[in-house]
Amino acid sequence: MDVIYTDNNATTKVADEVIQEMLPYFGEMYGNPSSMYTFGDKVGKKIKEARQRVAGLINADPEEIVFTSCGTESDNAAINAALTAFPDKKHIITSVVEHPAILNLCKYLEKKRGYKVTFVPVDKKGRLDMDTLYSSMSKDTAVISIMWANNETGMIFPVEEIAKKAGEKGILFHTDGVQATGKIPIDVKKAGIDMLSLSGHKIHAPKGVGVLYVKKGLKFSPFLIGGHQESGRRGGTENTVSIIGLGKACELARENLSQMNTHVKDLRDYLQNRLLEKIPSCSVNGELESRLPNTLSIGFDAVEGESILMLLDQEGICASSGSACTSGSLDPSHVLMAMDVPYKSAHGTIRFSLSHYNTKEEMDKIVNAMVPIIDRLRQMSPFWKDGKMI
Ligand SMILES: *Cc1c(COP(=O)(O)O)cnc(C)c1O
User: Fold this and answer.
1) Residue 114, Cβ neighbours under 10 Å: how many?
2) Which end of the chain, N or C, is less packed with Cβ atoms under 10 Å?
């Protein structure tokens, strides 16, 4: 059975073009990019090209690109650099809906390192509470880290506006751009961002490679201290193969960006509207107009997300649920809880996240599978009676 893959916010298929680009560097081209002889330097030149390609996607200068091992490392390196740059400042601002790479790091800094952290709340539609954000900025604030787009709901946050306010107050601004890159246009210069994280495996490159954009002139302390690689900003011999793949993926992402807002968005809207039309008592999480074009987070009253996923799996359909399954608990995710989504529909939330590889035929198959699945689960649900939730 062919798999219908709609979990692209979790990870993506490595593009065939990316695999082709990487293959020689798995094999005969194994030189160390730092070596003086031509055999190594050829790899060095290819990394240089990758750096230019990544920079091109986000309108950065190539020297502003630091390759890392993943999005999580980029996030950690950014916060570490900001706190090291301002050793006397003990306050951090972030949001309650961040990815664990920022959220758990900030909780750690608060509990174990004595930092004060403001976790900015969101409203029922998933929008940031801008008043709390702005009023919590102070002379003691070292860094503000707000994700560009949320991985669960696809909500896009006004990072340009926040970056501007932060800049006026001399506060560093970092954004986790892992979900935004490749899905919406990103211009770090125009947005006035100090640091931005991205991750290879969310944009059709392999797992285990990421990027931290660091604005020119920013006092940057490395998170991994070692050799001179990445101009001393990240020690360790480069993950040459994956970096080369990421470069190609960024080039493709740039070419495919317009498709995201036409083909992919159309598919997402089609899937959303069909589900809303055919299944009673379900609702979309997040403000419709401010979402990534590929993401649909939708809650079905009175059923369990995990049960839906299991039944979808039997049809070869891959999606995600809205519960914190990663932590082994069945509680709704921190994002849905923060949005105050009613417990009984948060529990039945499914996230479909699409890519340009998806087709309309697949969307129809998903709808055709979902209708009987929800019906069947509701017949067994203690919270469902006479066609509605009790
Ligand atoms: C996936 C993801 C990360 C983590 O990236 P990894 O490369 O898997 O470490 C960070 N932030 C967001 C928003 C993500 O979706």
Assistant:
1) 8
2) N
